[in-house]
Every structure is written in C-alpha cells, then in structure tokens.
Amino acid sequence: MTRKTYFYKFLEPLSKELATIARELENSIFTSPRTMLTHARTFMEAIVDKVLVTEHMSFETYTSLLDKLDILDEQGIITREVRDALHLIRKNGNLAAHDVRPFRYSEALLSWESLHTIVSWYVEVYGPLEMKTPDYRDPEPSVQEAYDMTELQIRFENMEKLFKNSFQKFLMQTPEDTEVAATVQEAVGSQEEESIIPGMTTIRTIHYGTESIQVPHFLRDAFLLPQRFEKSELFLIRLGGEQQARIMSELPENLEGLHTYVKRYNDTNDRNLFEELKTFIEEEKKRREIKLKRPGELFLFYKADYMIITEKLSQVPLDKNEFEGIPSLLRQLNEFGIEYVGQLPQELVTLAKYRNVGIGTVEKLFEQLKRRVRH
Q1: Are 271 and 208 in contact (CB under 8 A)?
Q2: Side-chain half-sphere CA neighbours of 306 within 13 A
Q3: What pLDDT does 196 receive?
Q4: pLDDT of amino acid 374
Q5: Rounded to whole angstroms, how far apart are CA atoms 15 and 9?
Q6: Which pLDDT value is given to residue 233?
Q7: What is the distance between the alpha carbons of residues 145 and 272, in angstroms, rounded to a whole number?
Q8: pLDDT exceeding 70 applies to what percent of the chain?
Q9: Strand ranges for 209-337 from DSSP E
Q10: Which residues touch 91 (CB under 8 Å, ≥6 apart)?
Q11: Ramachandran angles phi, psi of 144, nearest 5°
C-alpha cells in the first residue's frame, strides 16, 4: 500500500530512529491526540539528551526533564523561542499522561508546530551543514485505515526502545564521534517497514520448539476457523469444545503440550497446528494488504487464492444451469436462502460444513467462478 512521504523523512541521515518516531507522531495526530502529546514529550527529551551529551554535560546528572531544560537555558544553549517550545511540549505531554479528559486535535497541532521549532534549531546547530529543515507544514488527516489505540501504543513503545538502544551506542562513541552531525543510525529493519501498514505491528509471538511465529495486531482476536486448517481441523474442533484455541488470543505462548487439553491427540498435532498457523497468518496478511489496496471491493477467498466479485457476477444464480458437478451444495445453499453469487460467504471454505460437501466440492465452485471472471 502506497503511503505519502512523511514530513520528517529528511531526518533519516541524521537519526533513523528519531525520524521513525516523528513519523509515528505525525500518523497519530488525528488518530489519538493523547498518544501524540504523550510521545511528543519523549521525542523532545531524546533530542535534549543528545544535546546534553554533545555539549559534554552529563544528562544523567539531571533527574527530571525540567532540570535538563533549565540547565540548557541557564547555559545559553537554547533560544527563548526554543525554550518556550520545549516547555509547551513538556507540559502538554504531562497533561496527556495523567489527565483523563479528551484532548483536541488543536492541542496536538500546537505540539506538532513546537516540534518543528525544536527540530529546526537542532538541525541548524548540530546537524550537517547541507541539511535543511523544510518550512512548517500542517499534517493532513489520512484517508487510509488508521492504527487503533492499542497498536499505536505498541508502535511507539517499540520505536522508543529502538532509540534507547541506539542512544546507548551513541554514548559509547569516542569524543571525536559524538558530533551529532556525524552520526548515521541503523535502519529500523524490514519487519518495522512492513508494519507501516495498519494492523501489521507484531502483537505477540507464539513458539514451538526453537521456532516462532509473529502474530500481527489485526489477528490478535481472529477466529481460527477449523476449515482453514486441513490437518488440524478436527483437532481445533475438539479444542474448541474445551474452550481452547477458538480465537488467536486463546492460543498459549508455546504450543507444545496443547494436545493435553483433549484426549487421543499427541505432539504431532501440536506441530501440525503450528505449521498450519504459519500458513494461516501469511494468507491473512496477504488478504489484508489486498483489501487495503482495493477498498470497497467484494472478495471471495479460497485458501491462499481470491477473486473480485463484480456487480454482474454477484447476480449470477446459484443453480445447476450455471454451475455443474455440485448439485448437493447448490441445493443446500438455496435451502438456506443463498441463491446468488453475491450472497456467498467471503470465506468459501465454510461451505464445506454442509452435508455431503467436501473441500473438493468447494474448490469446484471456486474454479468455476474464476473461469467466469476470466471470460
């Protein structure tokens, strides 16, 4: 999914981590003003700590952010305009962290504008000579799907951990290397880049032996439809009867021993489920990307494949004149009031629940639908 370039992308050569946190701040202004205000304070303090180190002033000597700002002011390191911007972000961040009232977009925008003042000063004083800060620009509300509050918080926590690790490396550099203008931070990594798409942030990790699977946020409470797991279908049905493994969040951190919840199953079933869970997650990620790229479309999914249902195709009757070799499925669909293609469930494997209907019959229906699309 294509996303517009974020405002602080120009910071990447100076600090990949700061640039990434700034991107998250920009994304959160119209999603969660409270979150933006809270983490804008963290972003600002990260810059302050770098300045203190660069100026050979031990940032660990000052126990609070207020103390850090006061010493920078007393030493004449910051201008009045920068001082006021720093204090505005500090105060707004403190309020957002403790006050339960709703916060307005206008408050987040004030902090966003103050960040521009601070970053402009930081780049001018400590950045490379060739680096220039673009003129201030108000952010625009995204027309794309936004992160929900839980995912947004996780993303900020991950970014800030990344920055802290980078900052520790910064502290260990030689005096000649501590000039901020000369530092180029490590890239965030392919996983973080993938998680730019809302919902893709890792929410938890599931293990089996020495292997692991990362579960994206949008699947945190996904229903584990047994028909999606060919080798584990009956195992999941039995587990569901014991109120286990019905949804993703019910799975344990480690799948070893999951079979002990039901009789007559063993380690092989745990392993099969783990392997099929990897496939399930990859298929769901691809499906989500497709849905985000093509909003407003009607999809039919069958295992790893999919198709778009046009208005014309949606009106095709589900009868033996249109589809061959699947009379039992067609008859039962009609009995349940499903008479046209547009009424089919998005997840076609669920049709295998009907009497005397196997997965092969469902595949026949899907292949005939695909042929209609091609022709």
Answers
A1: yes
A2: 19
A3: 60
A4: 72
A5: 10
A6: 94
A7: 34
A8: 86
A9: 211-216, 299-302, 305-308
A10: none
A11: -90, 170
What is the Cα–Cα distance from 21 to 334, expressed in whole angstroms?
A: 53
Q: Which of 274, 256, 279 is nearest to 266 (CA)?
A: 256
pTM of the model: 0.60
Helix (H/G/I), strand (E/B), else coil: 174: coil
Locus of tokens 């260990």? 172
Q: What is the rounded CA–CA span in Å between residue 192 and residue 155?
A: 9
Residue type, 75: Q
**Residues 297-353: pLDDT tens digits?**
889 999 889 999 888 898 999 999 999 999 999 999 999 999 999 999 999 999 998
Residue 331's Cβ-count burial label (10 Å; 0-12, 13-18, 19+) is middle
What are the start-end ranges of the E strands in the chain? 202-208, 211-216, 299-302, 305-308
| Residue closest to 313 by CA, chosen among 299, 303, 328 | 299
d(CA 248, CA 158): 22
C-alpha angle 145-146-151 in degrees, rounded to nearest 5: 130
SS3 (DSSP) at 103: coil
Provide the pLDDT for residue 169.
65
Q: What is the pLDDT of residue 171?
A: 66
d(CA 84, CA 76): 14
